[in-house]
Amino acid sequence: MSTDPKKTNTPDCDTPRPRPEDPGKRRFLGQAAAATAGGLACAAGPAWGGRSFEDALGGFFQDHYQRMSSDEIQAALRRIERRTEREYGVEIQCEDTPAQPGVVFGYALNISKCQGYRDCVSACVRENNQGRGSQLQYIRVLELANGTRDLESADHYYDPETVPAEGHYYLPVQCMQCDNPPCVKACPVEATWMEPDGIVVIDYDWCIGCRYCMAACPYWARHFNWTTPRLEPGDINPKTNYLGNRPRPKGVVEKCHFCTQRTRKGRQPACQEACPTGARIFGNLLDPDSEIRYVLENKAVFRLKEELGTEPKFWYFRD
Amino acid sequence: MHLRGLGRRWATTCTRVFAVLALSILATLQVTAQAPDRPLAEPVDGHRALRDNVPAAPSPPSAPETFEGFPDAPAFSVVAREKQLTWHPCKNCHIALPPNPEPRQLMAPHAANLAHGDGRFWCLQCHDLEDRNQLRTLDGRTVGFDDAWKVCGQCHFQPQKDWAFGAHGKRVDTGPEERVIYNCTHCHDPHDPSIKPRAPEPAPAVREGLAPMILPDEAHEH
Predict the structure, then answer these.
(1) Cα–Cα distances in Å, from A73 out to A59, A244, B97?
(2) CA 20 to 30 Å from B206, out of A9, A144, B54, B132?
(3) Positive or negative, the Cα torsion across A155, A157, A159, A162?
(4) What is the mean pLDDT of the segment spanning B116-143?
(5) What DSSP string describes A270-299?
(6) Residue A142: which H helix or E strand, with range?
(7) Cβ B208–A298 below 8 Å, yes or no?
(8) Model confidence, pTM
(9) Is the ipTM here above 0.90?
(10) Taking a C-beta distance cutoff of 8 angstroms, is the pair B107, B96 a contact?
(11) Among A264, A235, A262, A265, which Cα is nearest to A247's?
(12) Exposure string over A110-146, b if 16+ CB within 10 A, otherwise e
């Protein structure tokens, strides 16, 4: 694992970055704005896009996730919950679950078990509140002809009556959570970074939608919200995380985040839980007794585009 | 003439010098060979000398070792299988039926055909004849349906090992501390174990508001 903080923008594993408490200029402006908000409460209404004046100002002055104090994070979480209720009519719980100490997540996928059912894809869409009409899916299940590994000719729009199709195998591709992530280097506003548990996350409120990270990613793992995500009230998963599956606005980039809302609480990612074949193996790379460590030590594993030096934490293997 | 004689003498001298040198080298080698640094019987760098490697005396016959699981594997429990079986306990019917080991066509609710093993197996390879509620291993021990993995692993030992260590099979979402895994028979029908093809989830759709997608092979036709 890379530990160079300059390279990966990552604090040390066991010492989470302390929340700043000294008010900066932006924070001072935000507080001043919030103080005046009470006096202007009468202005709440359609003028602020349905938001209260306080929410509008608070959202405008919201700082970068890593610079917010605990109170500011809590205020931001409550704003997200109010916004979701206003826009979708659903009460959600938005949390900020920090990375667990001593954990670096990794993924292994058995391509001889994957049958191309796409159960992982639909489970991911449901879990992560992805817009239903926006063609935005974190996982692409590539269909390849046996004996080839040409990703350029792979097809993820396959739709036969039954899978696996004769003479083909399936290679699901999602964010590889690179340890040397090129997308992080490309972001001009540092809206994306690698967390201490190895997950590359995005602050959707800080993203300016320039899509440089999408161009930098060699795995097609990042996706852009061209439209406001269309979510029916029944579609929304109410258990959300700030750096995870909270409903995203239009015009920001998003990607697989190893289900931070689940995995940081010790659960499996939704794709692993949904996979009926058991092809997906997820775990802590630092735990020598974990299943993923057994796979890495005993199976012939490979990674995609390894020669690029991005150090993906996503391995493939065969029986 | 004079020059030629000189050359011949020079050649003779060289030959003699070479001969003496060669003899002395040979003698040195012989001396080294005759006086080894250490006796051969001593182990060299942890290896036993070959001539000492006599086969050990045969140990008296003991009871064969029975498989007790993988002690190095991280602890796990298996999802109970018995209560998921429709007809278990089998003795509900078999209490009244005399045991009949003869291979024959069975009637419902038994599996209509036994695809496992391509016709080489009969029920009693895995099921116990006397105690119908139990399975049976090849060394004659009875095993409950919850421990069916012990029966499967007698032949499929490599998948069994991968399963115990976590590289095969499916784990229940119970958190990192408690490891609960599904039994072999949960996914593989033991009477017809291969996984059958099924319909996939729908393919990714075109984003709302865009024209239908033209696949590359269709585009060539236009």
Answers:
(1) 11, 14, 70
(2) A144
(3) positive
(4) 90
(5) HHHHH-SS--EEEEETT-TTSHHHHHHHHS
(6) strand A140-145
(7) no
(8) 0.79
(9) no
(10) no
(11) A235
(12) bbebbbbbbbbbbbbbbbbbbbbebbbbbbbbbbbee
